[in-house]
């Protein structure tokens, strides 16, 4: 198929793209695919037309909401990615978009009388003026960076819960060998984005070194590098019952699922949560029915302030440590293996990113927070969690040395391009455990939708920063 014609602007350029796409779509995609492509291209056309009109009396919020709905229509057509036509679609739609944007920037200035009116500029016109570097900084301040007051409030609530639970366990189960409970995760490491709505409470278990041995996943029957096992040893010298945790043995191994069930009964189903709610002046209740240990904290009406009344979710995480190895009891990740413990790579990844940024004054964590916010707020990219994004940046750091503030724009666009490549391969290997594919949990439909959205963002990064 050849696409020939003179360069046109505005409506003519869009019409040419539509005519070309719809006239050739049936040959490539068939009747059903052609209908789907017609909807997608129509949505793109309407989006660009709206950006060109930018009516003065139209509210910015309403325009952005309508634009997002139509972008969702486009991202709902993931099958185009595997039909060989996405290159044509993106090439010519992006060309028409850039031309329309150029027309907006070249519009004549308003008269002095019109300029004197206190009118709010259109969001599209602002994006036309700002560079991508400036838009990324603006997005970081608005979406990725959390207010210190909000973070402090969530940390304070989580620490109060931590104190209550630890005091309860000491009084009810004084013989249970536990370490000092503490906070962990993104809220503590300043890597949480959008809102401070979740925290992680680490519950360290103390094991006798002479009675227990941590077995790497590759050396077990599971053969999974992230599924470790904790074996009871020296039974001939120290028979069963010498260790407190012997009561949670299954087949000679400490069962992560049994430990979680024990904490669920000892804490979630036993603690007097209404009493704690009255003490903390918040509604505290366990989230039952899942495989994890979660609490929900809902501020009362008197405590609701400028930060709103969004609930805070706290996850309790039993953890075993030996050197730099941290094993967590997370049956939702290791099911159906009741004895398997999950090797957490989060401490390694976070520490490595901090070391690299400290060494060269880089903005890797800055970019990571922007990517996390983009994926959390974009429905098509929401299945992408923090781990693949962090490992994407770690892999890229091996080949790129400039992560300064001035290279923020280049690195962001490069991350998008690299991520598209990983999605096409269907694999993004862990930086510390290459045998682990961090994209293995994604469905084919999710990969297609993410790929389509990222293809659009290659030529128009603005769609990720709405």
UniProtKB/TrEMBL annotation:
One of its GO terms (molecular function) is nucleotide binding. It is a single-pass membrane protein. InterPro entries: Mab-21_HhH/H2TH-like (IPR046906), MAB21L/cGLR (IPR024810), MID49/MID51 (IPR045909), MID51-like_C (IPR049097). Residues 151-348 form the Mitochondrial dynamics protein MID51-like C-terminal domain. It is found in: Mitochondrion outer membrane. Coiled coil: none annotated. Keywords: Membrane, Mitochondrion, Mitochondrion outer membrane, Nucleotide-binding, Phosphoprotein, Transmembrane, Transmembrane helix. This is Mitochondrial elongation factor 1.
């Amino acid at each position: 198929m050849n696409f020939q014609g003179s360069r046109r602007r505005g409506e003519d350029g869009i019409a040419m793209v539509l005519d070309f796409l719809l006239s050739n779509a049936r040959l490539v995609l068939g009747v059903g695919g052609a209908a789907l492509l017609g909807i997608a291209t129509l949505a793109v056309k309407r989006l660009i037309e709206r950006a060109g009109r930018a009516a003065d009396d139209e509210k910015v919020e309403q325009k952005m909401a309508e634009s997002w709905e139509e972008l969702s229509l486009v991202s709902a057509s993931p099958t185009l990615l595997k039909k060989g036509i996405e290159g044509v679609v993106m090439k010519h739609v992006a060309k028409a978009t850039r031309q329309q944007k150029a027309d907006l920037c070249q519009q004549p200035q308003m008269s002095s009388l019109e300029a004197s009116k206190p009118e709010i500029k259109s969001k599209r016109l602002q994006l036309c003026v700002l560079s991508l570097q400036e838009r990324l900084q603006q997005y970081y301040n608005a979406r990725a960076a959390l207010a210190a007051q909000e973070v402090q409030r969530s940390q304070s609530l989580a620490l109060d819960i931590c104190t209550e639970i630890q005091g309860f366990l000491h009084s009810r189960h004084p013989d249970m060998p536990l370490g000092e409970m503490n906070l962990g995760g993104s809220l503590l490491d300043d890597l949480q984005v959008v809102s401070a709505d979740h925290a992680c409470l680490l519950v360290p278990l103390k094991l006798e070194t002479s009675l227990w041995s941590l077995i790497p996943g590759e050396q077990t029957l599971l053969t999974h590098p992230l599924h470790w096992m904790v074996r009871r040893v020296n039974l001939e010298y120290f028979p069963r019952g010498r260790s407190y945790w012997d009561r949670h043995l299954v087949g000679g191994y400490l069962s992560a699922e049994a430990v979680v069930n024990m904490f669920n009964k000892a804490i979630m189903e036993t603690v007097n949560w209404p009493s704690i709610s009255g003490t903390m002046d918040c509604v505290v209740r366990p989230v039952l029915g899942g495989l994890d240990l979660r609490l929900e904290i809902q501020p009362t009406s008197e405590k609701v302030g400028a930060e709103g009344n969004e609930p805070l979710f706290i996850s309790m995480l039993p953890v075993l440590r030996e050197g730099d190895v941290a094993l967590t009891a997370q049956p939702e990740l290791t099911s159906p293996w009741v004895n398997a413990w999950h090797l957490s790579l989060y401490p390694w990844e976070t520490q490595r990113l901090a070391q690299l940024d400290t060494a060269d004054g880089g903005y890797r964590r800055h970019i990571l927070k922007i990517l996390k916010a983009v994926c959390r707020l974009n429905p098509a990219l929401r299945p992408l969690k923090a781990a693949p994004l962090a490992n994407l940046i770690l892999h890229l750091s091996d080949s790129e040395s400039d992560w300064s503030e001035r290279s923020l724009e280049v690195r962001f666009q490069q991350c998008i391009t690299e991520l598209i490549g990983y999605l096409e391969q269907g694999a993004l290997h862990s930086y510390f455990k290459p045998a682990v594919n961090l994209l293995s949990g994604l469905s084919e439909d999710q990969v297609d939708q993410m790929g389509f959205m990222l293809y659009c963002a290659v030529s128009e990064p603005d769609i990720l920063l709405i």
